[in-house]
Amino acid sequence: MNRFKVFGFIVTALILGFIFKTARNQSTLPYIISYMIKPLTNTSMNPENVLKEGNGVIFLETTDRMQPPPLVLCAIESAVRVYPDRPVVFFMKGLTDITSEEDEKRAKEKFPSLSFENVYIFPLRMEELFKDTPLLKWYQKVDPKKERFWIHNLSDGCRMAMIWRYGGLYFDADVISMRPIPEKNFLTAEHHHTSGSSVFGLTPHHSFAWRSLNDFVQNYNGDVWGNQGPTLFTRVLGQLCELHDFKSLDNFVCGNISFLHPERIYPIPYANWKRFYEVWDKLPTFNNSYALHLWNYMNSQEKRTVNIGSNTLVENLYKQYCPSMYGLLAKNATTANQHT
């Protein structure tokens, strides 16, 4: 037995000697180190590892857009600040593959306001996401050119598949977070009997998510706005419980799912979305809300934005909940004024 130990020691010493002898050439050393750590890096930098605890905060970009507008960056930054102990992950369809920490670092450098340790950016690959779900066959068969609301329907499918696969919280990229949502399994009511789909959270592989994925395919109608999102959630929740009016700010509990009062996310309803871009005599506190949905789809025609110094509600929200993004906007506005 001792002979085998001695032989093993000699072989190990010879191998290590060869490596260090080769490494004396400084131009070779980086390649050796890179080769040794590459498998570890590739394994660690993927959504499965980052989101393995089931407590991630997920945002999506389902177009090829690589320059998100300020509202998107504000939404992500606000979530990062509210959930500092959770990974906040931004999936972008137009992003090239991320296979190393260096790739991920370069991706984050494009967005200075998101330079936080708990922010991760990954490419959005539909077929990988939809694998082993009812959505894969639908995605392979559907013709986007014939779809009236393709990007929105695709986004609806992606968010359901994401939360089914990874669990955690999903936020639309026009939702500004203000304080942590204390629930694990929840939907958010837009009205008393209607669920929204812009903010929700579930544990991984939750039965509600699987029901929703099946309903997405079985009752698919891409020509009806909201059919694959809020209407779907309302329909599936209604199969589990009878929805009724909220009598107070208390949540309505359906099994192990909390149905949050409209005040929690939608204190300003979609019909009043312009109020975000107006000056208020007295700024609201939103003490009963966890986040604010700014209804950016309603703004798609007018394209209202944050004007520095306007004292609008949205400017004050940026100042308080995404100060890094606001600082960049203020700096750009100052620079622009100096050149006029």
Automatic annotation (TrEMBL):
It comes from the Eukaryota. Keywords: Glycosyltransferase, Golgi apparatus, Membrane, Transferase. Pfam families: Gb3_synth, Gly_transf_sug. It is a single-pass type II membrane protein. It is found in: Golgi apparatus membrane. GO terms for cellular component: Golgi membrane. Gene3D superfamilies: 3.90.550.20. GO terms for biological process: protein O-linked glycosylation. InterPro entries: A1-4-GlycosylTfrase_dom (IPR007652), Glycosyltransf_32 (IPR051981), GlycoTrfase_DXD_sugar-bd_CS (IPR007577), Nucleotide-diphossugar_trans (IPR029044). The keyword Ribosomal protein does not apply. Residues 203-327 form the Alpha 1,4-glycosyltransferase domain. GO terms for molecular function: acetylglucosaminyltransferase activity. The keyword Membrane applies. PANTHER family: ALPHA-1,4-N-ACETYLGLUCOSAMINYLTRANSFERASE, LACTOSYLCERAMIDE 4-ALPHA-GALACTOSYLTRANSFERASE ALPHA- 1,4-GALACTOSYLTRANSFERASE. Belongs to the glycosyltransferase 32 family. This is Alpha 1,4-glycosyltransferase domain-containing protein.
